Write a sequence for this structure.
């Protein structure tokens, strides 16, 4: 019996010693310490003396701010940052934003917010960039993976192709949402770098043309579908800058379309002469003029009403009213038509002073010069170019 009691006492002592050693060391606020030190709640390890030390960041006499910042980060608890003021608050937000980029928006001014967001871009990518308020900084952030040369290109497609080629990385093409542009990007990349990324192209005709261009072969004729075959010849002709590759296309509509596209790609309006019908030729010249802003192509149009409209559209797009004078050589068009063209351009476009004085119509030229001086803040010394006395006097009173 005595032996049993001794064994029981020994077991109890062993249990107390065992669980007293390995049980959780819990602070008064319920946070479990890790490895004897826990900056999560600001607990300070014992220094082996009987001195009473602070157990929370707020009780510390030095290093309190750093302790709170670390605790906020460890617990992903932004409200700890609000215990701090000034630069310490900003340091806290910048640190904890590495866990959640939206915390940057708690900073007091846009510059601080933007700098905070830029610091976490490597972690959160474009999502952080999108929240930057400064437009230039946001754009540079979104285009951080682009070369400086390509970054300055405003057109998304052209910028993407430029960067893919510059970085020798065709995967940039996959960022384009439009399937046609994505195919064209892979085609441009493959042709320019002479690398076969053609399998990424969805359009079969374009894919075949791509392979032919890279592998220096011509297999478009082996395609049995007329439309796909024509599409193959179209792209092959355009990239080779040899429009005679449109000739093998059997369907006249597809062939004419090939000539038109090739004329534009090669910047050679003479190719439009190969189009079979007068109406289709006129459309070829008109579309060429719109694509290249070459007003001379309008003069090749046989249907007078088409030529008139074409000339006015291109003169307006170029903000050059003098281009309306091209209509003088067209039988069936009068000075009234030319004046109407002038008026459409000087009222519909911001015509420069130099383009105003290039006109041959004195009345329209005066109005154009007056508008340019008023709009662009040009010196009233230029009012002397206005021939009408009343309008010139009005001009001198502008500034």
């Amino acid at each position: 019996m005595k032996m049993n009691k001794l064994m029981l006492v020994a077991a109890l002592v062993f249990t107390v010693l065992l669980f007293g050693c390995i049980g959780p060391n819990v602070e008064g606020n319920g946070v479990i310490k890790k490895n004897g030190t826990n900056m999560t709640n600001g607990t300070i390890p014992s220094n082996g003396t009987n001195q009473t030390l602070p157990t929370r960041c707020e009780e510390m006499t030095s290093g309190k701010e750093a302790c709170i910042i670390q605790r906020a980060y460890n617990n992903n608890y932004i409200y700890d940052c609000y215990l701090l003021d000034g630069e310490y608050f900003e340091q806290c937000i910048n640190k904890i934003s590495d866990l959640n980029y939206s915390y940057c928006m708690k900073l007091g001014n846009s510059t601080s917010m933007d700098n905070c967001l830029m610091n976490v871009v490597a972690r959160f990518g474009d999502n952080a960039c999108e929240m930057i308020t400064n437009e230039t900084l946001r754009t540079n952030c979104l285009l951080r993976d682009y070369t400086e040369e390509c970054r300055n290109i405003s057109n998304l497609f052209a910028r993407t192709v430029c960067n893919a080629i510059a970085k020798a990385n065709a995967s940039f093409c996959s960022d384009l949402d439009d399937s046609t542009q994505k195919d064209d990007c892979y085609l441009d990349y493959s042709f320019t770098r002479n690398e076969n990324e053609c399998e990424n192209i969805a359009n079969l005709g374009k894919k075949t043309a791509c392979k032919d261009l890279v592998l220096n072969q011509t297999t478009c004729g082996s395609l049995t579908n007329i439309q796909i075959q024509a599409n193959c010849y179209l792209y092959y002709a355009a990239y080779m800058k040899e429009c005679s590759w449109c000739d093998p296309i059997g369907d006249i509509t597809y062939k004419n379309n090939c000539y038109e596209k090739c004329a534009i790609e090669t910047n050679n309006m003479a190719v439009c002469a190969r189009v079979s019908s007068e109406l289709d030729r006129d459309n070829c010249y008109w579309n060429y003029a719109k694509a290249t802003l070459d007003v001379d192509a309008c003069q090749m149009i046989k249907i007078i009403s088409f030529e008139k409209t074409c000339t006015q559209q291109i003169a307006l797009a170029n903000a050059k009213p003098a281009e309306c004078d091209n209509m003088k050589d067209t039988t069936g068009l009068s000075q009234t038509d030319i004046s109407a063209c002038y008026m459409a351009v000087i009222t519909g476009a911001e015509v420069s002073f130099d383009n105003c004085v290039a006109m041959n119509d004195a009345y329209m030229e005066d109005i154009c010069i007056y508008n340019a001086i008023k709009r662009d803040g040009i010196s009233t010394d230029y009012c002397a170019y206005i021939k009408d006395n009343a309008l010139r006097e009005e001009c001198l009173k502008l500034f």
